[in-house]
From TrEMBL:
GO terms for biological process: response to iron ion starvation; siderophore biosynthetic process. It comes from the Eukaryota. Keywords: NADP, Oxidoreductase. Belongs to the aldo/keto reductase family. This is NADP-dependent oxidoreductase domain-containing protein. PANTHER family: ALDO/KETO REDUCTASE. Residues 29-302 form the NADP-dependent oxidoreductase domain. InterPro entries: AKR, AKR4A/B, Aldo/ket_reductase_CS, NAD(P)_OxRdtase_dom_sf, NADP_OxRdtase_dom. It holds the Pfam family Aldo_ket_red. The keyword 4Fe-4S does not apply. Residues 1-24 are annotated as: Disordered. It comes from Oryza meridionalis.
Amino acid sequence: MAADDGGAQGMRGMMPEAALSSGKPMPRVGMGTASFPLGATEPSTVKDVVLRAIEAGYRHFDTAAVYQTEAILGDAVAEAVRAGLVASRDDLYITSKLWLAHAHPGHVLPSLRRALRKMQMEYLDLYLIHFPVSMRLAEDPESMTYSKDDLVMMDMEGVWKEMEECQRLGLTKAIGVSNFSCKKLETLLSFATISPAANQVEVHPYCRQNKLREFCKEKGIQLCAYSPLGGKGTPWSNNAVMDCPLLKQIAMERGKTIAQVCLRWVYEQGDCVIVKSFNKSRLRENLGIFDWELTNDDRHKISTLPEWRGTLDIFVHKTGPYKTVDEFWDGEITDKTNNQRKPDLTTCCTTINLWHCSLSSQSKCMVPLPTATVAATAVTFDPHLQAKGIDFPLHIMRCPCSPSWRHACDDGLEAWLAIALQDATWAALEAGTQYDS
Ligand SMILES: NC(=O)c1ccc[n+]([C@@H]2O[C@H](COP(=O)([O-])OP(=O)(O)OC[C@H]3O[C@@H](n4cnc5c(N)ncnc54)[C@H](OP(=O)(O)O)[C@@H]3O)[C@@H](O)[C@H]2O)c1
């Protein structure tokens, strides 16, 4: 299906918005700036694509300390104002997020001030606690290195009090959370004097979040959907959403693309939606969701798809505050007995390998890799990797960083596979595994 930007034509100034409990209304579609591996996309490419997005009609941009795109986004916004694409920074809605290692009382305000300095801005529109977990403080506040061994329970009350201070000081117009379950929101609401304006979570046709949406609606919290295309090509998900035969069928019948069907579906749920594309034509395509509707039959069929979450086990570790996926999501993850997510082994294993590389930044990997692995790893950057026969066991266990990363990788692998794969496939994986020495 060719890209259709019909609904995107003349988008400028017409983007639908959602009123929030604090701050400016949030444009219903925003552009994500997390590309994988995190921080690896050329700054000039990101800057250019943000400018093209503003030209196309995007007014809402999503970044985070860990994405390493705050400064680039700030540059692009300054350039957009200079070029007259927008009258001022105030015409844009900018969200950023607090990194785990800074999610401690006393470190929230400095972290936001650092973000604002990088972005050359006086305020954010929305500042989010990125995940409901903290990491031991790093010596270097700029360090975004992730280690499961350093995960600790968040002092949620202390952190939220300082988030509230950020809003009172005018450094952000609104504050919110990300990846919070109903239970964690309940806890937060029990001491909050300013309610979170938004909760940013994974939402797409395979992760519908009905319970959380209902809860947030009742509490006046806007649900904001990330990975609406299932995080196509990213290590925190796979390509199942965009390869879904039902969504393909609906797209064909409506004369739209699968991406547009996903985005329209999220939009119809009442959520704001953050979609990432660094491709100019897909950026426009993703705005083409406002002048048509799904049918009741489409909606019904989508409601019967099996459910799963992408970000399953990233913060689950034997020494951390969450020992199981269920604990992290407070038992609110979608029905595991009905979890029909069965990605092929190639996707699953290369996904895990790449995830830990992204967190330490590919460019910082110190261990020289055998040529075969390097070649195969390079292939995995291609989002269409499923189509290519990759030697998955080699990928899983080769860790380009340090021995501790290897452990993180193995733990993640075990938890992920336990949920994602059936026994027979697991046995096949074990039989074929070649552990790196
Ligand atoms: N709060 C959190 O914990 C969290 C977690 C994950 C993501 N996020 C935010 O949400 C944003 C979006 O999520 P995401 O990046 O995970 O996933 P996504 O938006 O579902 O998918 C992005 C992927 O889809 C591709 N794509 C985009 N439009 C397409 C189209 N029309 N047709 C085919 N492919 C298309 C992109 O490739 P091209 O660039 O090549 O088009 C990219 O590979 C992130 O950038 C980030 O800002 C937040």
